[in-house]
UniProtKB/TrEMBL annotation, chain A:
Protein name: Autoinducer 2 import system permease protein LsrC
Signal sequence range: none
One term under GO cellular component: plasma membrane
Compartments (UniProt record): Cell membrane
GO MF, any single term: transmembrane transporter activity
Pfam families cross-referenced by the UniProt entry: BPD_transp_2 (PF02653)
Function (record text): Part of the ABC transporter complex LsrABCD involved in autoinducer 2 (AI-2) import. Probably responsible for the translocation of the substrate across the membrane.
Membrane topology type: Multi-pass membrane protein
Keywords assigned: Cell inner membrane, Cell membrane, Membrane, Transmembrane, Transmembrane helix, Transport
Superkingdom per UniProt: Bacteria
InterPro entries, A to Z: ABC_transp_permease
UniProtKB/TrEMBL annotation, chain B:
UniProt subcellular location: Cell membrane
Protein name listed in UniProt: Autoinducer 2 import system permease protein LsrD
Purpose of the protein: Part of the ABC transporter complex LsrABCD involved in autoinducer 2 (AI-2) import. Probably responsible for the translocation of the substrate across the membrane.
Source superkingdom: Bacteria
Keyword flag Transmembrane helix: yes
Length: 328, 337
């Protein structure tokens, strides 16, 4: 049975078992309301993990997502508080466009200048995070400064389901389509599997990488608005350190950091797994101080399990898109 | 900065390529030369624009901002040269600081706190190294996991408390000066930098790190026990993070859950800016030290000029991007499509 051997099956089973175990200790956890809440809590991580997956599949990494999210979110909040008359769709488009622009900067540096992704995104991460402060002057934008409809949108229900979940569902579908059925998506896998072969067969690597990072940025921008609106506050430290959570979700989902492998289902399940742990701890009255340690143990367990069936992959840790070139 | 062993070092992939027959360009093209120029320019600009920058006491004080991070950057450079990386250093630092605090509150004599920190750091590094070498896992993933684990364990022990009341011995080293003007931390950094430079550039052990970074498979066929080198380097990085924890804890006199938050990225920035190739196999300790001094000068000048700290993250990020992109923009043969 091939399906039983897939790591997605294993991951899905462990999520169900985890939820049931927590439900045994605290029945309230498996109530529909609580599970719906869990789903809503996981959406931002799911969306970001999916676009991060597109980047990791190409042997890259986008460390700047959380800073991008903070900058786009702060700009959305500032726009909304300064110009309350602006339509919500306009603000969301603006946030997504800002995120896209920031992502394209990464993509240009990595795709066209062929600089190493980890270094580029490390640099832009600092720059974007710093710009949040410059724009806001270090001040918070709190809930009473933002228009009501701006804050209400993410948790408003459509057909009984929050907008956040609808968004995430749409992103999951789009990601599935892109990775399975678009030339763009298949090219990303080809680039990650064998960069020099991909170039040899004529895949436009620079353009593909540009848009892979562009999409990651676009999603960070959209999530920036959703994050700020959902938590009804924008400040300099928004989502600080969240880039590692996003990457961790991908790693747990079986997306190899060595590139070339990874599925939409894996990324979604990885993000859900982290969200379940985050939501379960307070319910079973484990001190929140344990959260980080448990997350670490889960990541390590996941990579150990994944390592068993992929011994050939995963040795190169800091991959480049640099083609082999003679020095002369 | 131009000893014989350095000229023998493989040039970084990001340096401007040497042109045979034109010596000046070869010298100017060296990453260390660019860094040295950048350092001198930053120093002069600060000296002219920022009042009191050249005051020796101010200069000495400025070194506190980077000494502990730079101590971790030294072994990190070795790790990156051999194609590994350690994201968990700030977690190791936090956990080591907690270990110092626990040991101190349980009556361990002050003189033994440094060994406690070193042991804790080495143990964390050992865990990283074992996971990476035993299971053939990518170190970036392992250490993203362990940073969560180490910082998590630190916060489990600390809760919302903080350890304070550390012995005078630690304050002496963390905040103290030699001859009233030379910070002890800076002296420790210089000594370790010299030690690392000798080991990396003048011993067979060091040369083999380059060999592993350039081609791990070939290195293994050449009889180098690649995994043992990796393991030792992770333990060394852990130990240096433990030393940094001891100095930092002594300097700020307390252990808090958010101690050294985000340092891993600053440490890696120092290493990359120092010309160490993220692809492995290239880089020098001299370059890293120059990068540390340059970053320290720029950020300290900005802080004396009352520029808020967060602007420095922009400057540091831009500096990193520009320095790696500039050679490509100037000499880059852009690949078609």
């Amino acid at each position: 049975m091939n399906i039983l051997k897939r790591r997605e099956t294993l991951l899905a089973c462990s999520i169900v078992v985890l939820v049931l175990l927590v439900g045994l200790r605290a029945p309230v956890f498996v109530s529909p309301a609580s599970l719906a809440n869990l789903l809503t809590d996981s959406t931002l991580l799911v969306m970001l993990a999916l676009t991060q997956m597109l980047v990791i599949v190409t042997r890259g990494v986008d460390l700047s997502v959380a800073s991008n999210l903070a900058l786009s979110g702060m700009m959305a909040a500032l726009l909304a508080s300064r110009y309350p008359a602006l339509p919500l769709a306009g603000i969301m488009l603006a946030a997504a466009a800002i995120g896209l622009a920031l992502g394209l900067v990464n993509g240009w540096l990595i795709g066209w200048l062929e600089l190493p992704p980890i270094v580029v995104t490390l640099g832009t991460m600092s720059v974007y995070r710093g710009l949040v402060f410059v724009l806001s002057g270090g001040a918070w934008v709190s809930s009473h400064q933002m228009p009501q409809h701006f804050i209400a949108f993410p948790l408003t229900r459509l057909l009984g389901i929050t907008h956040l979940v609808w968004f995430a569902a749409a992103v999951v579908l789009a990601a599935w389509f892109v990775t399975r059925h678009s030339r763009f998506g298949r090219d990303l896998y080809a680039i990650g599997n064998a960069p020099s072969c991909a170039r040899y067969v004529g895949i436009p690597m620079a353009r593909r990488l540009l848009w892979a990072y562009g999409l990651s940025g676009l999603m960070a921008g959209l999530c920036g608005y959703l994050w700020v609106a959902r938590y009804a506050v924008a400040y300099t430290e928004i989502a600080y350190g969240f880039e590692f959570t996003v990457i961790a979700a991908c790693v747990i989902g079986g997306i190899s950091i060595a590139g070339g492998t990874g599925t939409v289902l894996g990324a979604v399940l990885g993000a859900l797994f982290l969200a379940v742990i985050g939501n379960a701890l307070p319910v079973v009255q484990v001190s929140p101080f344990w959260q980080s340690a448990l997350t670490g143990i889960v990541i390590l367990a996941a990579v150990l399990i994944n390592a068993r069936d992929g011994k050939h992959a995963g040795r190169q840790i800091l991959p480049l898109h640099r083609p082999a070139r003679s020095a002369a | 900065m131009n000893s014989a062993d350095m000229t023998a070092t493989p040039t970084s992939r990001y340096t401007i390529h040497d042109r045979p027959g034109f010596r000046l360009s070869a010298l100017l093209g060296k990453w260390e030369t660019l860094l040295a120029l950048l350092f001198v320019v930053a120093f002069l600009v600060n000296g002219i624009l920022v009042p009191n920058f050249l005051d020796p006491y101010n200069l000495a004080d400025g070194t506190f901002n980077f000494s502990e991070k730079a101590l971790i950057a030294l072994p990190m450079a070795l790790l990156i040269i051999c194609r590994e990386i350690d994201i968990s250093v700030s977690g190791i630092l936090a956990l080591s600081s907690v270990a110092i605090g626990l040991a101190h509150t349980h009556g361990v004599p002050p003189a033994l706190l440094l060994p406690v920190a070193l042991a804790m750091g080495t143990a964390c590094g050992l865990l990283n190294g074992v996971l990476v070498t035993r299971f053939a896992l990518p170190s970036i993933v392992v250490t993203i996991g362990t940073v969560s684990l180490f910082r998590g364990l630190a916060s489990v022990v600390l809760g919302d408390q903080a350890f304070t009341g550390y012995p005078q011995l630690m304050a002496d080293w963390g905040q103290g000066y030699f001859f009233d003007v030379i910070p002890r931390e800076f002296v420790v950094l210089l000594l370790f930098a010299a030690l690392f430079a000798v080991v990396l550039h003048a011993t067979r052990w060091g040369r083999r790190i380059y060999a592993i970074g350039n081609n791990p498979v070939a290195a293994r066929f050449a009889g180098i026990e690649v995994n043992r080198y990796r393991l030792v380097l992770f333990m060394l990085t852990g130990a240096m993070a433990g030393l940094a924890a001891w100095l930092l804890t002594g300097r700020i006199g307390s252990t808090r859950p958010n101690i050294a938050m985000g340092w891993e990225l600053e440490v890696i920035t120092m290493v990359i800016l120092g010309g160490v190739s993220i692809a492995g196999g290239a880089g020098t300790i001299g370059g890293v030290l120059l990068a540390v001094l340059t970053l320290g000068t720029v950020t300290y000048g900005l802080s004396l000029a009352n520029v808020p700290g967060i602007y420095m993250t922009i400057v540091v990020g831009l500096l990193l991007l520009v320095t790696i992109a500039l050679p490509r923009l100037l000499h880059g043969r852009r690949v078609a499509k």
